[in-house]
Amino acid sequence: MQFNDVIGQQETKQHLIDMVANNRLSHALLFLGKEGSGALPLALAFANYISIKNGIAAKKTKEATVSLFGDPEPTETEPEHFTPATIDAWMQKQEGFSKANTYTHPDIHFSYPVIPRKSGDKPVSTDYITEWREFIQKFPYGNAYDWLQFIGAENKQGNITAYECNEIIRKLNLKSFESEYKVLVLWMPEYLGNEGNKLLKLIEEPPANTLFILVAENESLILQTILSRTQLVKIPMLEPADIEKSLTEKSKVAPAQAQQIAGISEGNYREALQMLQHSDEDWNDLLREWLNALLKNGPAAQVKWIEEVSKQGREKQKQFLRYFTHLLEQSIRLKYMGSAINGFSLAQNEKDFAERFNKLTDVAQQQAIVEELDKAAYYIERNANAKMLFHALSIKLYHIIKDKVTMQVN
After folding, report:
1. Dihedral of CA 394/400/403/408: which sign?
2. Residue 87 phi/psi, 5° resolution?
3. Which of 101, 246, 250, 403 lies 20 to 30 Å from 272, alpha-carbon distance?
4. For residue 209, is it left (φ>0), alpha (ψ between -120 and 50) or beta?
5. What are its GO biological-process terms (predicted)?
């Protein structure tokens, strides 16, 4: 992973590079970014840079090795201007690049949630290192759910266990192999229970030239004792233009479709890829059927619609709710800003829907619906029963639209 492989985040990339250039690098960093922002790819690129910068070739440069004939041996010095592009070009010429780029560098260690392969196992991250390397190469913007499904967890809960904490302590107390630095990338510290306190002394007083990079999505789920010992690096959500560019260049998506997906995904690249995967779904027709069932066709039509949507997978249900939320947000903007929204025009069918919905509901009602949709998506993520959820949601939406009930409906 190089900085160029990380979508957008130019300011954050430059900030990290400047930290190293100005010798302001803390021994423990917390990369905090919401799902799809690119916190993990950025951490991987940064870990590679630290290990390569302080690797074999860098040591030779520092020592200014002299050959038998008295002439300095040629070495590849760092670039004069420290930017993501120049750092990437420099890294590609270094001895440790191929190992770092394939996640096999002996001085970069990884820790992540795992499950027992069989009852009674005491799993550690290295049990799944082959799967991990494949996962981060294929799905660097994936979340914990994607990872656990990738290793066949199904409904099992992943954890970073006490045995893993002991393994981290053991590995980081060993001497480094090729680099001056030993780097630990700990993904999802939210999965550390109280056993994470085992790491406190190591994080607070690490061996020389040891770097911790914690990569998290939810600050509130991290042990406060660990949080207080790290330097925070906030990873913002991606700009729609960066997502659009990546979709057109990497996924070969048509510009118009890429523009639409980028707008709906709200800075979440994982969500954008999920939408692309389900781009053949006609969410607009499904939404019209739902609203017609609610407002015109009665209970029988509602039950039929709920039966149909409950058969869809969890990801499709979430995509549908997100699509509805997107249309409602655009309806509100359309009311005040006209047809040009967020730098692009709505598709004609979406514009028609927004205009009709604006006549049917006011802003307060639309905001109330958005809140209900967000809560429903949250519960779907946590395996709520789809039939019960969409039945309850249908009742709430009916009252919001018909009865203009904009306060929370329990």
Report:
1. positive
2. -65, -45
3. 101
4. left
5. DNA-templated DNA replication
Phi, psi (rounded to 5 degrees) for 195: -65, -15
384 confidence band (pLDDT: 50, 70, 90): confident
Residue-wise pLDDT for 96-146, tens only, equals 899 999 999 999 999 999 999 888 788 899 999 999 999 999 999 999 888
Q: Give the C-alpha distances (Å, rounded to integers) separating 324 from 69, 82, 117, 371, 407.
A: 73, 44, 40, 12, 20
Within 251-362, residue ranges assigned H as helices are 255-265, 269-277, 283-292, 299-310, 314-337, 348-360
Cross-strand partners of 210 = 182
Residue bearing tokens 């009665």: 298
- Burial grade of 293 (CB within 10 A; 0-12, 13-18, 19 or more): buried
Contacts for 48 with CB less than 8 Å, ≥ 6 apart: 1, 2, 91, 97, 100, 101, 105, 108
Distance CA 185, CA 133 (A): 13
Strands 340-341 and 344-345: antiparallel
Q: Phi/psi class of residue 363: alpha, beta or left (left: φ > 0; alpha: ψ in -120 to 50)?
A: alpha
Question: Which tens digit of pLDDT belongs to each residue from 7-27?
Answer: 999 999 999 999 998 888 889
Whether this prediction's pTM lies above 0.90 is answered by no
